[in-house]
């Protein structure tokens, strides 16, 4: 492939949205209330829409007969390069919202920078997605506050969720080889520069929600290199089932 | 690709106006502002459409419907989906806004007022049923990606509000 770094770079962005979108989609018909159910699936739909634009572009760069569907559905677990955070399960609604919030803050900062990319396709996708993602962040921040500053039980559940997921946040700011190459070409975003803004924003919302910002300095990593938690395999089994069972099926 | 202007051949307008958004059937895709280009080149109509939201599932149907409508008038066409410039609710025409209201969907407010409504719970969205502004936000997300759920506290009717996107 001529432009392998760009291809890998796009997957690095898109896989996060695909896997998070799938997680949110699992709540279809299972949300804690009708409104939150619809909200989660709406966000899922936004993310899948963004993913399609990224994968279509990646398929074009790959230049063989690969399609967006092949990229989404036919890779093996080790070939997905999403961060560990987004593959974590919907343990309870506090976890679902904490995961969303911890990703949304990053996602928005990331897209704000990606808008400035020299690559016109990536900057157009970022420009389009940013409006959707700001809305996701509003929604998830709102739930952090409502549960954090809610009852004793909701506060505890949200604190547990934040504490439980905190270990996956640092990986957002790790650079892959493709990242470094794309940053130096003026195409990619230097994620290391987003770190301070990220933790400041997260802390501000947690403070407002009467939640403690975890102090642990021990972080999990691996997703960006294809080394995942056990949860991803199960998620992919469901995501890929139809294409594996009935290859090339369409609907 | 970066112009916000539409480039639509006059002869094609009546044909395109027959195509409606499958999720809001009263609204033509022209009033919705999703058609950015429609020009005849070498006997083929080249159409560029832009999605309201990235994941809008209506886009594939809209593309097929445009093809069918043009075919019925004897035109072959090519449909291209473009992302830039990004669609905004400002592109909905006054006639489109009226169609939304008549259909029972509150039309988008300006960006500032939209924030007041969605973030600060201000009661300014007009109920499309009774016209009262004594309305409240039920959920930021609604039946489709472009809408939020509201309820009128005067006539009690629930309704959709078309979110401002800028």
TrEMBL record, chain A:
<dbReference type="InterPro" id="IPR012347">
    <property type="entry name" value="Ferritin-like"/>
</dbReference>
<dbReference type="InterPro" id="IPR007814">
    <property type="entry name" value="PaaA_PaaC"/>
</dbReference>
<dbReference type="InterPro" id="IPR011882">
    <property type="entry name" value="PaaC"/>
</dbReference>
<keyword id="KW-0560">Oxidoreductase</keyword>
<dbReference type="InterPro" id="IPR009078">
    <property type="entry name" value="Ferritin-like_SF"/>
</dbReference>
<dbReference type="GO" id="GO:0097266">
    <property type="term" value="F:phenylacetyl-CoA 1,2-epoxidase activity"/>
</dbReference>
<dbReference type="InterPro" id="IPR052703">
    <property type="entry name" value="Aromatic_CoA_ox/epox"/>
</dbReference>
<protein>
    <submittedName>
        <fullName>1,2-phenylacetyl-CoA epoxidase subunit PaaC</fullName>
        <ecNumber>1.14.13.149</ecNumber>
    </submittedName>
</protein>
<dbReference type="Pfam" id="PF05138">
    <property type="entry name" value="PaaA_PaaC"/>
</dbReference>
From TrEMBL, chain B:
<dbReference type="InterPro" id="IPR056572">
    <property type="entry name" value="Zn_ribbon_PaaD"/>
</dbReference>
<protein>
    <submittedName>
        <fullName>1,2-phenylacetyl-CoA epoxidase subunit PaaD</fullName>
    </submittedName>
</protein>
<feature type="domain" description="PaaD zinc beta ribbon">
    <location>
        <begin position="115"/>
        <end position="163"/>
    </location>
</feature>
<dbReference type="InterPro" id="IPR011883">
    <property type="entry name" value="PaaD-like"/>
</dbReference>
<dbReference type="InterPro" id="IPR052339">
    <property type="entry name" value="Fe-S_Maturation_MIP18"/>
</dbReference>
<dbReference type="InterPro" id="IPR002744">
    <property type="entry name" value="MIP18-like"/>
</dbReference>
<feature type="domain" description="MIP18 family-like">
    <location>
        <begin position="16"/>
        <end position="72"/>
    </location>
</feature>
<dbReference type="Pfam" id="PF01883">
    <property type="entry name" value="FeS_assembly_P"/>
</dbReference>
<dbReference type="InterPro" id="IPR034904">
    <property type="entry name" value="FSCA_dom_sf"/>
</dbReference>
<dbReference type="Pfam" id="PF23451">
    <property type="entry name" value="Zn_ribbon_PaaD"/>
</dbReference>
